[in-house]
Design brief:
The complex is a heterodimer of chains A (about 200) and B (about 450). Chain A is α+β, with helices and mostly antiparallel strands and about 200 residues long. Chain A contains four helices and seven strands. The longest helix of chain A is centred in the first third of the chain and has 19 residues. Chain B contains 13 helices and 23 strands. In chain B, the strands form six sheets. Chain B has a nine-stranded antiparallel β-sheet with strand order 13-19-18-17-16-15-14-22-21, sandwiched between helices. In chain B, strand 3 and strand 4 form a beta hairpin. Chain B has about 450 residues and is of the alpha+beta class. Chain B folds into two domains: about 110 residues, Rieske Iron-sulfur Protein; about 270 residues, Naphthalene 1,2-dioxygenase Alpha Subunit, Chain A, domain 1, CATH 3.90.380. The two termini of chain B are about 35 Å apart. Classes of the chains: A alpha+beta (about 200), B alpha+beta (about 450).
């Protein structure tokens, strides 16, 4: 048995209640009345998103993992209305351990779909921050456009991302959950092994 | 179009590259395979209620599978009989009729012409002539929820065509309450390669530890001594109890169940690590005691690969559907399946089971299939070499002790390519035949 307290080893926190809370957190959050224009908060949010994009573009996956809370969710819905991940297959739904699985696999050197690795360039834009009922928790909506170069070809990935973040110290935010909404989430996609 | 000497292209030990690279052979396959034999179209759970529809393909033909008000299932061509535009542009849904967006012709859910705008401008009444009903696949039949269609009036009835592969399909379904499952969205991929590269792979036990090396390492990173997932391929798989069985008509079955311990919970025990496993398991055990083992097994993938030629691959809990897009491009859709429990045989555990089951199904497409698809694409690249045309499938050939044959079922060891050789013989028969294909127009008006 792994350490029950360590979500990198065991997945005790992803329960029905966790899914319900996640669904609730990702519903109705983008009310314009909740827009946060505080430049300090904005600065932290921009820094987080740009740092995340840079780590992913540079293939610094371990550093990318460090941006996430120990108990986190990484969710790419497989349908445009997002659906309930308890009832439908997603494009990806990772807990902490499976995020680490993803990185571990890429680093084995035998993940043929990423051998050689995709080169990526991400543009993150239209960043808006929304307050939640918890003073230290924010929802960040951003658009992304990523160009991936793989196997001799460049191709676009686009959509919007929603980060649920918590302020952990004066330095900044930690990602509690990341939802990536791909424009083509419900289409057949060639080699969907790049990390978004 | 040139015809081909398939005797020269398909040998027992090898096939010619042109089967994968020649657009004219692909064009022939669209009638002689995806037309002349039974092809999987959809699952009944995708059109559960009267007036539901779901879009699919028969080869490249756009098809709408519908359920009419009398629960009859139809497979309609999505092509207005007036000018040819598609009449349905939603992937799935529910409707009383399809109205062509171009000139407004409308059709019932059963495909019969229902209305022609400004009819007085025509000398005839199109509704009196069934030529103007939507074309439909002339023969549509289901086996336990799996809907198939063919345009070949000479083809054997579906049950006879499926023959022995029905038994594994029955086993696969019957582990669920009511012998049923429901399709619930999918991991959707495509690759730049011929569709047969995926069918060749469908019962291939030889590639596992090589193509999926990263997944095997990942699955076992916590427990090198208690191996998970596909690790049974690591030792000497051909000496083990896993066998591949060929049933005729291109259908085959890789049965990995004999490696399982014979007790409830054995399937769950070999599952890899998935989101929520420990949390849900603890809750189920606390609430249901011993029954939890059975429930957890329902959340786990069953180690069976059931391959129904040419496009239905049932594996683990997935229904994988191959869709040829061109001679060098194929879509592969990994439909997830959920447990349905209409009689509450699971005492309220069905939602928890499905929440786990969604996650157990996502891992392989994301971390396993992508590597196979890359290898399929690289085969397609390699087959660009014209002067080196042969692709081999001779593993096991000439080693007679490896095989048994009983009641027409040929069985071989886990990594054998016997299923490729046998399905290619069937493929050759189909490609050398030239049956008449026909649509129907339904209706007796």
């Amino acid at each position: 048995m792994g350490d029950i307290q360590n979500p990198s080893e065991t997945s005790h926190y992803v329960t029905d209640a966790y899914y319900s809370d996640l669904m609730a957190a990702f519903t109705g959050w983008d009310d314009t009345d909740r827009l946060c224009l505080d430049p300090v908060v904005q600065g932290r949010a921009y820094a987080l998103l740009y740092q995340e994009a840079r780590y992913l573009d540079q293939g610094q996956f371990k550093k990318w993992l460090d941006l996430f809370a120990p108990q986190c969710a990484y969710w790419i819905p497989g349908t445009w209305n997002r659906g309930d991940p308890r009832r439908e297959i997603t494009f990806a739904f990772h807990d902490r351990r499976q995020l680490e699985d993803r990185v571990y696999r890429l680093e084995t050197g035998y993940a043929w779909s990423q051998q050689p690795a995709s080169r990526t360039s991400r543009l993150v834009s239209n960043i808006e921050i929304f307050r939640t009922d918890q003073a230290d928790v924010f929802m960040i909506r951003s658009n992304f456009h990523m160009t991936e170069f793989w196997n001799g070809e460049s191709r676009p990935w686009a959509g919007y991302t929603v980060h649920r973040v918590q302020q952990i110290d004066a330095a900044g935010f930690q990602i509690m959950a990341k939802q990536v909404n791909l424009l083509n989430c419900d289409q057949n996609i060639r080699n969907p092994s790049v990390t978004l | 179009m040139p015809d081909f000497d398939f005797e020269a292209l398909i040998h027992e030990e090898k096939v010619h590259r042109s089967l994968y690279t020649d657009p004219d052979i692909f064009a022939l396959e669209l009638t002689r395979i995806f037309g002349a034999t039974w092809v999987y179209l959809a699952h009944e759970s995708q059109i559960p209620n009267p007036f539901d529809f779901f879009q699919t393909k028969l080869g490249l033909r756009p098809i709408i599978v519908t359920r009419d008000g009398d629960n009859q299932i139809h497979a309609l061509y999505n092509r207005c009989t007036h000018r040819g535009a598609t009449v349905c542009r939603q992937a799935k849904g529910s409707t009383r009729s399809f109205r062509c967006p171009y000139h407004g012709w409308s059709y019932s859910i059963a495909g019969d012409l229902a209305g022609v705008p400004w009819r007085e401008g025509y000398a005839r009444n199109h509704k009196e002539d069934n030529r103007f009903n939507l074309a439909r696949i002339s023969r549509v039949d289901s086996y336990r929820g799996f809907i198939f269609g063919t345009l070949n009036l000479e083809a054997a009835p579906l049950v006879q065509h499926l023959a022995g592969i029905r038994k594994p399909i029955d086993d696969w379904l019957d582990r669920h309450p009511g012998g049923k499952i429901a399709v619930c969205e999918a991991n959707r991929m495509k690759f730049k390669g011929n569709w047969k590269l995926a069918y060749d792979n469908s019962a291939d036990g030889y590639h596992v530890i090589f193509s999926h090396r990263s997944l095997l390492m990942m699955e076992n990173r916590f427990s090198p001594d208690d191996e998970k997932g596909m690790s049974f391929y690591k030792q000497h798989p051909d000496d083990g109890p896993i066998r591949v069985h060929y049933y005729g008509n291109g259908h085959h079955f890789k049965d990995k169940r004999p490696t399982l311990a014979n007790h409830p919970g054995a399937l769950w025990q070999i599952e890899g690590k998935h989101p929520g496993m420990e949390g849900y398991e603890a809750e189920l055990r606390e609430k249901y005691g011993k029954d939890a083992d059975y429930y957890l097994d329902l959340a786990a993938g069953i180690p069976m690969n059931i391959n129904v030629f040419p496009n239905l691959l049932i594996l683990g809990n997935h229904i994988q559907v191959l869709e040829p897009l061109s001679h060098t491009e194929t879509a592969t859709t990994w439909y997830g399946t959920a447990v349905v429990d209409e009689e509450n045989a699971l005492n309220g555990a069905v939602d928890a089971i499905n929440a786990l089951r969604m996650r157990t199904q996502e891992q392989f497409p994301l971390f396993g299939e992508v590597d196979d698809l890359t290898n399929f694409e690289e085969i397609q690249v390699g087959l660009g070499a014209e002067e080196d045309p042969w692709v081999y499938m001779d593993r096991g050939l000439g080693l007679p002790d490896r095989f048994t044959e009983q009641d027409g079922v040929i069985s071989g060891p886990a990594t054998d390519e016997v299923f490729m050789r046998e399905y290619m013989k069937h493929y050759k028969t189909l490609m050398m035949a030239n049956p008449t294909l026909s649509i129907s127009r339904g209706g007796e008006n």
